[in-house]
């Protein structure tokens, strides 16, 4: 089979997969998962055929996928793939661009610059900011926090690039009691051990309580959240960032999914967020672009460019070249699917996507309350934290709903109590899917 025939075959199989996406179980059944044993083969000495390899991947692999690209996947905040973004990704595979600099890919450098401007516009963040397209909110937090650390040390007269951390002035890091694990991970990788993190207590909703905000100074990084991972709540940015600005602290906002609220009628939740120094958000969650697509935004463009610089004698580039704004040197143009998503949705389409999920989440919460469920959060966004009766009943209800195929979602622990965590973030999810989920949950609770 020629290259072109092989690609057509892959497209045919992909098309057939997508045709069945609405019917697919949100989580693969036991038989499909058992079929994965076929992949447990030794590395062949002689290479196997490409057609056969693709066939194996589709025949035994496709059934064992979670249908996270479908309408009834309510786990984590996964998001599906918008057709335009997925199509752009397909074309990019043919291009095989190394999107490091203008020299390695004029098209990637050009579009990613535009995508960066559009993001600042859509999210209404300071237009002078640098925008790096990284693999994940985790990686982007690492980039932003390293820029923060470098800048605060530099203001203390310390050159971290040359002298490292030994003997450096101590940087204080204040995080929310409910900080996301990946921000902790980024901090850990940067040398901020967990016992040194200062915890900011939260209120009953999971937002940092400004009255109990630990002291801040010019050697402090304050990590805030737009969209707490369970409840979807937002820290009170205006008052917290005002305090941080007065103290000359650096404010970083983890907005992996929640930052998108700013594009919608829920914008008030983000009031004051524009005063921070850096922000991270994902394309692959709520914007529904393919993996891996995330964004590091840093008000002080130079701070990010210096922290992430990877110029070499054989590879120098402008300060806003993506290799100088992200962890990666060789990289996929992950800003292009984000550009395609923004261009095809438009400002209005992004707002509608976010609003629709928020409205459906509120509808679902009302319905579940009527049926005797305890909704533990306020449902300000697209997240529900729900219980029914005892811990055991709650877990059983989850399993019954998953068995019916009406939806998949995970468990969490909120304020010490195990609960169902339901998230709406797929562009494919329609009211009928949410209604079906509500029905399945109600039936499971009655039994
Ligand atoms: C998912 C998530 C992250 C991490 O994002 P990745 O892109 O998966 O690395 C960080 N913070 C919050 C609140 C999240 O939901």
Automatic annotation (TrEMBL):
SUPFAM superfamilies: PLP-dependent transferases. Pfam families: Pyridoxal_deC. The modification N6-(pyridoxal phosphate)lysine is found at residue 285. Keywords: Decarboxylase, Lyase, Pyridoxal phosphate. The keyword Iron does not apply. Its cofactor is pyridoxal 5'-phosphate. GO terms for biological process: carboxylic acid metabolic process. Gene3D superfamilies: Aspartate Aminotransferase, domain 1 (3.90.1150.10), Type I PLP-dependent aspartate aminotransferase-like (Major domain) (3.40.640.10). It comes from the Bacteria. Belongs to the group II decarboxylase family. This is Glutamate or tyrosine decarboxylase. It comes from Rhizobium multihospitium.
